[in-house]
Design a protein that fits this description.
Elements: H1 2-15, H2 18-34, H3 36-45, H4 48-72, H5 78-105, H6 111-139, H7 143-158, H8 179-184, H9 186-193, H10 195-210, H11 217-224, H12 229-252, H13 259-279, H14 283-310, H15 317-369, H16 371-374, H17 380-383
Helix pairs in contact: 1-2, 1-6, 2-5, 2-15, 3-5, 3-15, 4-5, 4-7, 5-15, 6-12, 6-14, 9-10, 9-15, 10-14, 10-15, 11-12, 12-14, 13-14, 13-15
């Protein structure tokens, strides 16, 4: 989040165009979409810890490149976008590996517990990262990227110390012509054949595609709320505060009943608070709206992060999560692009309000279109539909 926050502020300072904020998100997302057939297979075929470490080091290298470019004093944004594409390639490999790993570390009965704590740690980074980025950016534009490079080196090294639970791999079939492509497409086939998976993943795509208000925060902070880089950093951090508070509650008392309905209601609440963010001219109200909308999003992230890995086998998990990563990337990065275009046409406030209303409409529509998702009561209802080699899911409390 430190890199994303600093890049958004830097690009907007250089160009002053909301559209460039959208293009920044598109540059980060495009590699994940183009490489989806490769990244999932890599996560399933190689040690996921090693994939995370190598891709993390590449992300750190991209941060160093941006720091060097800022040091040169040049003002063209095209090189920044080129580096962001490289950053997106590294993240495209990191995402399915890192999201598959929790289910390799613990059994199905403990996965909600681990997902909640993992998400809470991520939300702490959402709080610290933007504040750190805004503060460091105000001192020296190079500092946020140097900090990211150093922290990435430490986290990539620590990845190798993660202990995995033993599991029996299915024997690999002999390779036939065309088998590699068939294998790579397995994730798409699994998602298409399971209505619950399709509903969960596509819900995130369309809801956040229209509700990508965060991409316009630099414009809202400067043009509508009248705050500087430090205030903008705190506004970004407000999202982390809301999500971390909710994740702390979920770590103590996870969602165990009415899982499907809770997911859909949370997405609707996300849209409503996005509308509030777009309407207000007061920093305090915007701060509270960011806390609330990201708190609602945290509930959605927790449910999706627990349900999707449980609904697939270990042998196809990386490929399914690579497909999901494209949907998530589309919701975040294409949502940022859509918000940037809408911001150019309607202004940042109008774009955010319209996007929030569209998100509410998506939640209502998915309630009607995916009754099987709405009827999911417990996580173990999904585990029960997966082959028995997944372990003691049906006897668990989830």
């Amino acid at each position: 989040m430190t890199t994303v926050t600093a890049l958004g502020k830097q690009v907007y300072d250089l160009t002053g165009r909301e559209l460039d904020l959208g293009l920044l998100g598109l540059a980060e997302f495009a590699p994940a979409a183009l490489l989806v057939l490769v990244t999932g297979s890599v996560a399933d075929r190689f040690d996921r810890r090693r994939v995370m470490a190598i891709s993390g080091l590449c992300e750190g290298g991209c941060a160093l490149l941006i720091a060097w470019y800022v040091h040169t004093g040049r003002t063209a944004v095209a090189p920044i976008f080129a580096i962001v594409v490289c950053f997106g390639v590294a993240r495209a490999f990191n995402s399915p590996a890192s999201r598959s790993l929790p289910a390799d570390v613990v059994g199905a009965e403990h996965l909600p517990w681990l997902v909640a704590r993992n998400s809470m740690a991520f939300q702490v980074a959402l709080i610290v990262g933007p504040v750190l980025a805004g503060s460091l950016y105000a001192v020296d534009h190079r500092l946020p990227y140097l900090a990211v490079a150093a922290l990435t080196l430490v986290s990539a090294s620590a990845t190798f110390f993660i202990a995995l639970q033993p599991r029996q791999r299915a024997p690999r079939a002999e390779r036939r012509p065309g088998a590699m492509l068939h294998d790579a497409l397995a994730g798409l086939r699994v998602v298409r054949r399971q209505p619950i998976l399709l509903g969960v993943i596509s819900l995130d795509l369309f809801a956040v595609l229209f509700g990508g208000a965060i991409a316009l925060l630099p414009a809202l902070a400067e043009d509508r709320l009248g705050v500087g880089s430090v205030g903008f950093g705190w506004l970004r951090a407000a999202g982390g505060i809301g999500a971390a508070a909710v994740m702390l509650g979920l770590a103590r008392r996870p969602v165990t009943r009415h899982v499907g309905r809770t997911l859909l209601v949370a997405v609707g609440a996300f849209g409503l608070f996005t509308v509030v963010l777009g309407l207000t001219r007061t920093f305090a109200v915007a701060f509270v709206a960011m806390v609330a909308l990201t708190g609602a999003d945290a509930v959605s992230v927790f449910i999706r992060g627990t349900l999707v890995p449980l609904a697939v086998t270990a042998e196809t998990r990386g490929r399914v999560l690579a497909v999901e990563a494209v949907f998530i990337g589309a919701s975040n990065e294409l949502g940022a692009f859509e918000s940037g275009v809408a911001g150019e046409l309607l202004g940042p406030a109008g774009a955010v309000v319209l996007g929030g209303l569209a998100t509410v409409a998506v939640a209502v529509g998915w309630w009607a279109l995916f009754p099987s998702l709405r009827r999911v009561d417990r996580f173990r209802d999904v585990v029960a539909a997966v082959p028995a080699d997944r372990g003691p899911g049906p006897t668990s409390n989830v």
